[in-house]
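INFO  loader      accepted 1 record
INFO  loader      residues=305
INFO  predictor   begin
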Amino acid sequence: MRPRNSLTNVLLNPLHRINIANKDFSLLHEEMVKGMITILFWNTGGNKVTRIVGNLATIHEVDILVLAESRSSVAELLAELNTTRNLSYHAVSSLCNRIAILARYPEEFTRALSESPHFTIRYIDLPGVEEFLLVAAHLKSKLYQMSESQSFVCSELIQQIRGAENHVGTEKTLLVGDLNMDPFQYGVVAAGGLHGVMTQRVADKGTRKVDGKEYPFFYNPMWSFLGDLSQGPPGTYYYDASEHVNYYWHMFDQVLIRPALLKHFDTERLKILTDDGETDFLSTKEIPDKKRVSDHLPILCCLNL
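INFO  predictor   done
INFO  writer      dumping tokens
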């Protein structure tokens, strides 16, 4: 971790040299002072919701936007954010074509460690704050993949995550995305999968041993948002299937946090969003409005680093 507000170290490091006259530097300096990173993930359902994305980025002061199934081009999004709203976002290039990432930092601070068509693992190394890993994922839909295959994909993903953690020497990892699985499904909860558990107390144990092998935990706070007793909608996705087993609401869009990052995770600011101040994301039936907005609801989380 770099000393907070150490501008000398930042300017002397050639990788972090920034034009002081550029407004990017003032934004970075502001982030160094407040040490707060706000991340928004949204599967926009293939709809053109450029203005809504701009509204969300403005209202919630989003630092990293992660979008799936975006019909708006990166150029259109940047024009909305930077020209119309006078913000300062940068496109983050990626081999993962199912996800678009826009950040309020130059791309050099979000280095790719591992990528596939369904996920990207980024090393976020900002001046003045603790570095961490951001995993953005958009896994295959149940329409195209059996549950057993989804579990296998999660096993492959966790191997890539652990490889990236070993490479940079940190387990401060946050995973965000549309997993196309609920928190209780095998790919998310299994020891050989993402190993996401519903309580911080369990996650704080760090690992558990199965058949003599240690498996590290993720904490999955999205369990707390399931059902009517949550403070917002009972899920992020709604599907009324004509089958004997029908959950109706699903929590496909999730945030998972490694125990090493938990002290920095602001649980009070984790939210499922239902409007942007102008448009209601729910229909009159109180389910995601997939025609006007998206069939998924966006999720917002925050790290205090």
